[in-house]
Amino acid sequence: MSKKNEKIIIPLIAVGLGILVGMIILLLSGKDIATLFAGLVKGLTGYDMLKAGSAVNLRYPGEFLVSTMPIILTGLSISFAYRTGMFNIGCEGQVIMGSLVSCMVAILVPMPNFIAVVVCIIVGGIAGALWAFIPGLLKSKFNISEVVTGIMLNYTALYGANYFLRALPGSSAQRTVNIPENAMLGSELFKQITNNSRFHWGFIIVIIAVVLFWFIIEKTSFGYSLRATGFNKEGARYAGIKVNKSIILSIMISGFLAGIAGAIVVQGTFGYGRVMVAMDNYGFDGIAVALVGGCTALGVTFAGMLFGLLKVTQPLLQTFGVPKEIGEIISSSIVFFVALQYAIQYYLLKFTSGKKKKKQELQPQGGDVK
Amino acid sequence: MDYAIEMLNITKDFPGIRANDNVTLKVERGTIHALLGENGAGKSTLMSILFGLYEPTEGIIKVNGKEVKITNPNVANDLGIGMVHQHFKLVHNFTVTENIILGSEPKTKFGTVDTKTTAKRIDELSKKYGFDIDPSQKIEDITVGMQQRVEILKMLYRNADILIFDEPTAVLTPQEIDELIAIMKSLAAEGKTIILITHKLKEIKAVADKCTVLRRGKFIAEVEVSKTSEKEMAELMVGREVDFKIHKPEIQLGNKVLEIKDLCVKNTRGTRAVENFSLSVRSGEIVGIAGIDGNGQKELVEAITGLCPITSGTLILNGKDVSGFSIKKRIDSGIGHVPEDRHKHGLILDFKLKENFIIHGYNTEQFSKNGILNFTKIDQYADKLINEFDVRSGQGKETITRSMSGGNQQKAIIAREIDRSPDLLIVVQPTRGLDVGAIEYIHSRIVNERNAGKAVLLVSFELDEILGLSDRIAVMYNGGITGIVNDKETDEKQLGLMMAGSKIEGVSDHE
User: Fold this and answer.
1) Alpha helices in B29-72 (DSSP H)
2) Which UniProt keywords are given for this protein, alphabetically ordered (chain B) (predicted)?
3) Pair A149, A142: CB distance under 8 Å
4) Is B348 on the interface with A (CB under 8 A)?
5) Fold of the CATH domain B3-238
6) Which of A96, A237, B106, B415 has the most crowded CB, counting CB atoms within 10 A?
């Protein structure tokens, strides 16, 4: 089997196995398996299989897309750093900083229409990039693991952001005031089409990010130098590539993507800044998405949609009488099986070569082989 | 005939390549049988099949006359087949004993690992075959030659009767090679059967009884070594006439391209590796640096190319002081470098072959415009290098470099560096692991660079190579130079003495 096929088939098998695990658990707990699929179909299309003939409710696909947008972006963020050989676990903190700065600028700086939306997203991205600069600098200058600094900065971001959000004019203990309408990504048109879902213009940003990611990594000389660094740091150094610069730039771009994800959550999904008790896990979901998507643009897009679907399906399942945790079990099983890719590869190989053998019967039998 | 191994009509297909095509190998018990072939001729594949790493597409294997199916290395071990790999598989902070028993640790009656009795047995084995090994030493404290003996002991300890040696001399010094040859002979005398994978004809002549030659995956001949000459074997292997001599026309020396003045370099542990080293290389000459591995050659080369910082001294390239230049700037100023460690430095193994070719020039006009890679040009360039330097691989320029054979990886690096035609070409161990045909070609390309008026600095641990290529030879010992001699006025013996540290008044360094 070629490497390329393997890259597609293994995640698909992992997804299948993950859903299988979910089904087995449903069976064991005496629930109807059909509800799981009904939930997934409803989350994806808005059609309720269990009520034949009922109308399609576009609110569901709308919400489905809303939940995929930030995790595709964080998936891209993790992937970008990973292609340069870094594990940007600080993605979560960069999302939080993106949210914070986008929200602060939206509330504090009056801006004309159209410009406001764009400016808020960009400053969100820049905030994420600057937050990522810290682990990048520490890594390149002192070889300190970006994982350790990233995790610490996640908490710094969480509690630091909460302080600033509460300090904004008009904030309550839980949230800020609504950001001005002209900084919002939502649109009346989408609301009408999708039966009042929160679907917003952020999808255009996501598409741009996916295309740019692919283009930079695969087609530019900059992406080439990043990939070289990611595969073999010493080899890249030998070739004259400035490895430290690559590391800092790559994690900052990763942080920029995370920051945009944070900005979209404020400007699109909620419309205000939230004082958070715990992290949203957009960054951590991004790790799973990147892993399942194989760190490629297209893979991350599909993986992001899958995880987004599992997320929006959870409350739906609850209405069908299935505990919402089933969604989490499935998504974590998928991650588990993707992490087991070598085992899957091994059995795939055994399976395919076994088939060949049966066809050809070339192997002479004999000898006292155990 | 009493055959220990019979591999009959073996064929092995990989995607895009037939690695073995109807190959037959018969090895008599108690003999040393060489398996000779160029890189990519299918030697390693054939042995991997015998060792259970691959299953053959077609063909029969018999061990001691009995037909067997070797599905994995454990089966091979049970059949008494042991393999001494080219890259040792040892745990460095374990002792010799611990490494040997790893995987099948004997237990005392209290359930702890019984190192005492095994150490005794290892000592006995070591004495029997003249290995001279202390079982209580740690791997990291013993030489490469000794580590190889541990690998051999590991096989003997597991009662292997058939030993496969995969290019065993590639990592050894000349003295260690002599010792290994003695060991192999004593093993054969004790009734062990040995298969030696190699492309070094000298060694086959010295040690083997019979020799099977492969070329491009096909069986070519089985010859009686004592009745064949090196030249004949070389021609069987390559398939054409081979010229061992290197032809170097007299040419006019030009300016000093590289001038090293009082260079001092510290190694990674912080001790002095290069001390007050001065040398110059002119355009139109090849200066060879001879010496035993570990006498500062690595640090010297890395200091010139910028990979490691210099403590003091100056480097002058074409009249310009480049001591403070970045790696990139040095490359752009005209340094080409074929590094010693092709996996660590020379290649990005997970890149495609074509991507490795552009590693220096990826952001120049040649391969990109406004930061966007031009894949048409990259593909054309890759095809050109692959054709010109005969780099063989499964899927051509699209092959992931990691999956290529070592010799072809090395050819790829040489192709890339020589094609840039830098003013100063630094080549370290350029032909390590390469076969006769490839060595011949690469040597001629290096000489061509010299003839074209480039300066070449050659670092090699193989005296034949140093003597054959160099115009002048500087011998390095303990970070300094024990002497600089003219190629024509020296011989192996004199160089050997200098490599051991005795100073000799040779030619001066142009002054």
Assistant:
1) 43-50
2) ATP-binding, Cell membrane, Membrane, Nucleotide-binding, Repeat, Sugar transport, Translocase, Transport
3) no
4) yes
5) Rossmann fold (3.40.50)
6) A96
Residue with tokens 């900065």: A153
Q: Is B365 on the interface with A (CB under 8 A)?
A: no
**Three-state DSSP state, B257:** strand
Let me know: does B76 contact B52? Beta carbons within 8 Å: yes
Q: What is the ipTM of this complex?
A: 0.79
Q: Minimal Cα–Cα distance from B393 to chain A, Å?
A: 15
In Å, how far is B46's CA from the nearest CA of chain A? 16
Give the tokens for residue A190. 């989408």
Type of residue found at A321:
G
Nearest to B354 by CA among B370, B332, B375: B375
For an interface test with A, give the residue of B330, B362, B428 to mutate (most A CBs within 10 A): B362
Interchain CB distance below 8 Å, A232 and B337: no
Closest CB to A369: pick one of B68, B331, B368.
Answer: B68
Per-residue pLDDT of chain B (511 residues; tens, 9 = 90+): 689 999 999 999 887 778 899 999 999 999 999 999 877 788 888 998 998 888 899 999 999 989 999 988 888 988 999 988 877 888 888 999 989 888 778 887 888 888 888 888 888 888 888 888 888 888 888 877 888 889 888 888 888 899 999 888 876 767 788 888 999 999 999 899 999 998 788 889 999 999 999 988 899 999 999 999 888 888 888 887 776 677 788 888 889 999 999 999 988 777 888 999 999 999 999 999 998 877 889 999 999 999 999 999 999 999 999 999 999 999 999 999 999 888 888 899 999 999 999 999 898 888 988 899 999 999 999 999 999 988 888 888 999 998 887 778 888 999 999 998 899 999 998 887 677 777 888 898 899 999 999 999 999 988 888 988 999 999 998 889 988 998 888 887 788 788 877 776 655 555 4
Measure CB to CB from residue A362 to each of B58, B347, B371 and give the nearest one: B58
Q: Which tokens sit at A244?
A: 């430290």
How many CB atoms lie under 10 A from the CB of residue B305?
22
Residue B120, amino acid: K
A23 min Cα distance to partner chain B (Å): 37
